[in-house]
Amino acid sequence: MKAFQVLAGFAETDITPDQPEKYELIGFNRADNHARGVLHPLKTQVLVFRSEKMTCCILTVDSIGITTPLTNQLRDQIAQQLDCSREHVMVCYSHTHSAPDAAANNGAYFQFILPKILDTVKDACKTMFPVKAAWGIAENTIGVNRRKGASALDKRLGVLKLSNAFTNKVEILLLRVTAHPNVLTADNYLISADYFGVTRDLLENKYSCKVLMTQGAAGNVRSRFRQKNADALEEDPLEAQKKLSSKEKQRLFHESIAALQKNAEEIVKSVAKIFDAMQPRDIYRLKLFSYTKVFSADVPTLGKAKDIVVEAEKEAGISGTDWFNEVKRLHTIGVTQQSASREIQFFILNEGCLCGVPDEPMCEIALAVQHKAQDNLLFFGGYTNGYEGYLPNDEEYDRGGYEVLWSNLIYYPFYNRLMPYNRDTADKLSSFIAGVWQKEKTRK
Asked: What average pLDDT score do residues 263-290 get?
């Protein structure tokens, strides 16, 4: 294919709240989620691409994920600034569990970051330079499957290198890594970008360029290095902390801080092994577009719902009273299935592709996409253009547990559904994505 000139611009800004104590953190089922300070700053980063045919934008945000409606408000305003359509704006959330809840307090945090992000888009457009690009696949050594009886992992660490076409200087690295940013677990009340922030700093210092990170299909993948008490804290934060002395709590927290560094260092080592071999070349393909599919979730029978409530209370201390009442209400009015439109977005640059959905998919789905497309440079992930809950593959659907069932008892008002999407959703989704990519690769 014939090469053409592409310009890129980058800017970033701090989106850490000025008064963190006013905001609630989101990510752990705790009685009190109010922040108590700042450990690491949060960032939003903007990467704008412009060619003769299109303008598009990738935005990364240090957040667990903001609802799809709010994210679309943001995308619409960015699109208006760039004079493009919403589907040409991709918002990628890191999924850190140590950031403010954007929907709490009538969306106060969202309103705080919105003008900052829009100003950052303007700033990125002022820094445009011609680029070349190279893709590489490093080894993801920090992912661990956290689901009992499961071992699948997406061991690819995707790396996109962008250099200045005139000077050949590396200006930007864009990473796709698959592992939960909840190294700082339920004993942490300080705002942080988690290992994403530490990794960015290490890579930027090493390569003297800017670094963006996006999250893969990490619904069932945790980070390799964490404090030894992490699992107990997540299962029952209050009970776990009652059993610890103040000295032990402090020691475990410092263990989490050390774990952030270890995870970041592992990523830097992986990138270093492929960095020099990645030779940027001219751009011959640039696209950012979306498809919309309808996903469905069956409302459970009352008998099944009772079983879920009992199990969630017994295994995780989660109350399902309100959730069960909603199940009963829907049955009373004859609703047995809930559906939602889902945006599937594709960013394509030369031979590589980042694909994302506004859900928290299991890693097996990314592996299925890779296998069906027969292409290692097709990277599927979640937390894209919103956040709407877990998306399990068929085997994980059958296993049940927190990610598939119990989490819905807490977050169903935000998901606008009571259950995960039906068992065959992941298979249909992976086939669709692989099919789109195969067609795109054959286009001239």
From this structure: 98
Residue 232 has pLDDT above 80, yes or no: no
What SS3 state is found at 129? strand
pLDDT at 29 over 80: no
Cα–Cα dist 34/22, whole Å: 7
Dist CA 389 CA 68 (whole Å):
11
pLDDT above 70 (res 444):
no
Instruction: Write out pLDDT tens, residues 349-393.
Output: 999 999 999 999 999 999 999 999 999 999 999 999 999 899 999
CA distances from 255 to 229, 230, 269 (A): 10, 10, 21
DSSP at 121: H
Predicted TM-score of the model (pTM)? 0.95
The residue that leads in pLDDT, 148 or 81, is: 81
d(CA 14, CA 104): 20
Listing DSSP states for 388-417 in one string gives: --EE--HHHHHH-SIIIIIHHHHHHHHHTS
Report whether pLDDT(242) > 80: no
Residue 131 predicted with pLDDT over 90: yes
Arithmetic mean of pLDDT, 105-109: 90
**Calpha distance 192→96 (Å, rounded):** 8
User: For residue 234, is pLDDT > 80?
Assistant: no
Question: H or E element: which one contains 25?
Answer: strand 25-26
User: Distance from CA of residue 312 to its chain's centroid?
Assistant: 25
